[in-house]
Amino acid sequence: MNQADLSFVVVEGPIGVGKTALARRLADTLNAELLPETVAPNPFLERFYQDPRSGALPAQLFFLFERAGQLETLRQDDLFATTRVADFLMEKDRLFADINLNSEERALYEQIYARVSVDAPQPDLVIYLQAPVDVLRARLSQRGGELDALIERSYLEQVNQAYARFFHAYDAAPLLIVNAESIDPAYNTADFNALLAEILTVPRGRRFFNPVSSRTA
């Protein structure tokens, strides 16, 4: 595989693993367009982390509309296609809906999803970053965001397990599963270069990348 084969790349993984920062660096390196998960901050996210029961549905629907809007823009721009890197899969929206919504909210969400969800383009490659919860918590602490401090360990465990189940069964696109426990490709140049080489050579199907960090900048 070479860059010409990568018109649409998706970076995914649980909260704190570094998917957005990696997607941004990858887009810069490939001279690609970055397709971020959200253009504007989710105004319901703080309420959700403080009171999940009352904040779950509006936070979920905000993300749904944002993700659908981003992919609709991508569809409309297909005639002028270039390489694009996104930090989300549309399918993962349901992953969070399963965790966060009760049965009544879930039924309403499904009705709305059916009306607003777009025919998302098929990625040429999905990069799934995985790491243990302790690593996710440490990286969230390093980021130092006010909302990051509100995320409880039990919620991170739920999200991490949900991602593992989702990608265990995922076969909609070529998948590169990256053990990001001891590497930081978003900020470590040697780690990034090693991962980039793997991205540009990964075959069709499913592949695992389990490196040891160089620990150099």
What does it look like?
The chain has helices spanning about 20-30, 45-50, 50-75, 90-100, 105-115, 135-145, 155-170, 190-200; strands at about 10, 35, 85, 125-130, 175-180, 205-210. It has about 220 residues and is an alpha/beta fold. Strands 2-3-1-4-5-6 form a six-stranded parallel sheet, with helices on both faces. Strand 5, helix 8 and strand 6 form a beta-alpha-beta unit. Helix 3 runs antiparallel to helix 4, helix 3 packs parallel to helix 5 and helix 4 crosses helix 7 (about 155-170). It is globular, with a radius of gyration of 17 Å.
Describe this protein with a few key phrases.
217 residues; alpha/beta; six-stranded parallel β-sheet; 8 helices; 48% helix
In brief, what are we looking at here?
The protein has 217 residues and is α/β, with parallel strands linked by helices. It has helices at residues 19-29, 45-50, 52-76, 92-100, 103-116, 133-143, 153-169, 189-199; strands at residues 8-12, 33-35, 84-86, 125-130, 175-179, 206-209.
Low-confidence stretches: none
Count of individual beta strands: 6
Apparent shape: globular
Strands in their spatial order, largest beta sheet: 2-3-1-4-5-6
Oligomeric state: single chain
Assign the structural class, choosing from mainly alpha, mainly beta, alpha/beta, alpha+beta, or little secondary structure.
Answer: alpha/beta
If you average the pLDDT, what whole number results?
A: 88
Return Rg in Å: 17 Å
Q: What proportion of the residues is helical, as a percent range?
A: 40-55%
- Report the biggest beta sheet as strand number plus sense, adding barrel if it closes: 6 strands, parallel
H/I helix tally: 8
- How large is the share of residues in beta strands? 5-15%
- State the order of secondary-structure elements, H for helix, E for strand: EHEHHEHHEHHEHE
- The separation of the N and C termini measures 27 Å
